[in-house]
Amino acid sequence: MSLPAKKSPGFGTSGLETMVLKQNMFEAFSQKIYQMAGLYIPYNEKNMALLSNRLTRLIREYDLNSYEELNEKLRIPSEGLKKDFISSLTTNKTDFFREEAHFDFLKVHLPELLRTKPEVRIWSSACSAGSEPYTLAIMAAEMLTASDRQRVKILATDIDNEILKKAVQAHFTPIEMDGLQPHHKQKYFTQISKQMFELIPDITKTVHFSEFNLMNFQHRFQKKFDVVFCRNVLIYFDKETTDKVIDLLVSNLDLKGYLIIGHSESGVVRNPCLKSIGNSIFQKIRN
Ligand SMILES: C[S@@+](CC[C@H](N)C(=O)[O-])C[C@H]1O[C@@H](n2cnc3c(N)ncnc32)[C@H](O)[C@@H]1O
């Protein structure tokens, strides 16, 4: 028996198995994600495989028949589809204590900041599933008194609302907890099933999560931040977008505050208000 050329109503996977992502559709999706999230996905074999794989899942979820249909729906997308499209194309890899030198730096500088300011504001601006801001919260719990901890405010944002739901839930598998020391696992997590651990409220309550798109270049938060993390996301932007994102981060950073980016990203910073102080950490030296 031959397979139907097109999926039947109610959908099996038969139609999708024969779906081919053509170059013109690749270009259309790549342009859309660039406009929506700034992600630069040039045409090559690897990205073709990536887009076709991830968008096939989205097509299935929305009970559509083809890339062309998805593209048509994305012309004037519902808010839900737009979020799901963005979520399907973001890369969320993260870890606790990732690039540990950054946390070692803060161990020294956080007490210093707390000595001179009523509160210290930290922004994790592409926080993914929360391991980065939760690492900061664990670090604060380990080294500060209860009253000093209350003076540290952590805002964690990401464009991807699906990954933010996971972050708020704060459930982690043993693999996702690889970066943590055994005593951190023991002290700050409760086992809730064989393969799942939950971060305790004493830590989760100190991180505030919110959706934020770094393409919102003109946005100014009510108060400036003392430390901004923007790690392992600039690699997905082109030069023009990276410059604008860094301008945005610098505009929301207090004078003398620190911008911390991914180790592999330090070459992309070209902002006259920033001075490199090593380890892909920059200090704001002028307004
Ligand atoms: C690879 S993760 C990095 C997570 C964390 N900063 C770290 O270094 O472990 C990149 C994150 O950037 C987010 N992202 C991508 N484009 C974004 C945008 N335009 N605005 C805000 N977040 C974005 C993705 O959703 C993803 O969660």
Give the SSE map.
Elements: H1 14-17, H2 23-37, H3 45-61, H4 67-73, H5 79-89, H6 101-116, E1 120-124, H7 131-143, H8 146-150, E2 152-158, H9 161-169, E3 171-172, H10 182-188, E4 189-193, E5 196-199, H11 201-204, E6 207-211, E7 225-230, H12 239-251, E8 253-261, E9 274-276, E10 281-284
Parallel strand pairs: 1-2, 1-7, 2-6, 7-8
Antiparallel strand pairs: 3-5, 4-5, 8-10, 9-10
Helix pairs in contact: 3-5
The structure holds S-adenosylmethionine (SAM).
S-adenosylmethionine (SAM) binds next to loops.
Structure write-up:
The protein has twelve helices and ten strands. A hairpin with a 4-residue loop joins strand 9 and strand 10. It is globular and about 60 Å long. The protein folds into two domains: 14-89, Orthogonal Bundle (Chemotaxis Receptor Methyltransferase Cher, domain 1); 101-284, Rossmann fold (3-Layer(aba) Sandwich). By secondary structure, it is of the alpha/beta class. The strands form two sheets. It has a seven-stranded mixed β-sheet with strand order 6-2-1-7-8-10-9. It has helices at residues 14-17, 23-37, 45-61, 67-73, 79-89, 101-116, 131-143, 146-150, 161-169, 182-188, 201-204, 239-251, and strands at 120-124, 152-158, 171-172, 189-193, 196-199, 207-211, 225-230, 253-261, 274-276, 281-284. Helix 3 (45-61) packs antiparallel against helix 5 (79-89). The model is unreliable at 1-12 (pLDDT under 50). Bound molecules: S-adenosylmethionine. S-adenosylmethionine binds at residues 37-39, 90-94, 98, 126, 128, 132, 158-160, 163, 213-215, 231-233, 262.
